[in-house]
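Support request from a user on the community tier.

User writes: "When I paste my structure tokens into the form, the page sometimes reloads and wipes my input. The last time it worked, I copied everything first. Here is what I submitted, just in case something in the input itself triggers the reload:"
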């Protein structure tokens, strides 16, 4: 089912509603731990814990999703070549984000940090986002600013302009992207602002990253597979789309359980 951005039914889509509920759960947990036990909040946000494994699983799922949609477009012929290229770029970006979250499986496989990263990475890990280049913190001074600029543009500015200028939506779809429904994006931004304001912890950024990962997994799967705010879904039958949305909602709930299990099994890392 294709839903317009202004439709009241968007928030009732099972996968969309579940994504909002999952982010609300993590925000509520963070607020509760902040108000009751700072040590438990640190364990909640530490490396290889519940929140970080949930980030990895959502980014990994986005990698599979975008790769699958790229394959579907490839089967449909050369007229979708630009979409395939854009979707493959998204696949690579989400795969990079997933692997960066767990330092490319460094702690899982137990290999030593290479000399360059041990010297220049502020957490002595094998990843790029924690690199220090001179006095420049790559994550804080560059990546966060780019992410904020992209997030506001993609989630607020473009969805606001798209109803008035349909070419914006067409261009996004032509290059393999999509626009999140504005109503859903406002929930995401509200979670980010609440966590940034109310959860006082040096690792609260992990919560903000998680909100983004869950938001994009739910809106991308709803768009590409079900047709929420998107004109070319993989599955076009109305009944099948509702069932797919329910299945995606259950899949997201399963990711939460799996992230909790992986976090509980992981050794403590500061």
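"...and here is what came back when it finally went through:"
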């Amino acid at each position: 089912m294709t839903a317009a951005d202004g439709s009241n039914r968007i928030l009732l889509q099972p996968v969309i509603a579940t994504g909002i509920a999952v982010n609300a759960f993590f925000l509520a947990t963070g607020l509760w731990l902040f108000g009751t036990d700072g040590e438990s909040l640190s364990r909640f946000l530490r490396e290889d814990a519940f929140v970080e494994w949930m980030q990895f699983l959502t980014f990994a799922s986005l990698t599979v999703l975008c790769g699958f949609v790229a394959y579907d477009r490839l089967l449909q012929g050369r007229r979708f070549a630009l979409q395939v290229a854009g979707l493959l770029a998204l696949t690579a970006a989400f795969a990079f984000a997933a692997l960066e979250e767990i330092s490319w499986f460094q702690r899982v496989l137990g290999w030593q940090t290479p000399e360059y990263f041990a010297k220049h990475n502020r957490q002595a890990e094998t990843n790029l986002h924690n690199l220090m280049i001179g006095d420049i913190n790559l994550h804080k001074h560059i990546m966060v600013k780019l992410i904020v600029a992209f997030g506001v543009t993609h989630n607020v500015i473009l969805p606001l302009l798209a109803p008035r200028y349909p070419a914006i939506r067409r261009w996004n779809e032509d290059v393999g992207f999509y626009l999140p429904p504005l109503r859903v994006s406002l929930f995401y931004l509200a979670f980010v602002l609440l966590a940034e304001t109310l959860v006082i912890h040096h690792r609260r950024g992990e919560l903000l990253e998680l909100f983004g990962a869950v938001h994009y997994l739910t809106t991308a799967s709803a768009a590409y597979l079900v047709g929420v705010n998107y004109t070319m879904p993989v599955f076009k039958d109305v009944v099948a789309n509702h069932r797919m949305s329910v299945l995606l909602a259950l899949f997201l709930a399963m990711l939460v359980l799996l992230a909790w299990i992986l976090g509980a099994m992981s050794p403590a890392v500061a």
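Agent notes: The reload is a front-end session timeout and is unrelated to the input. Residues 1-6 have pLDDT under 50 and may be disordered. The longest strand covers residues 132-133. Escalated to web team.
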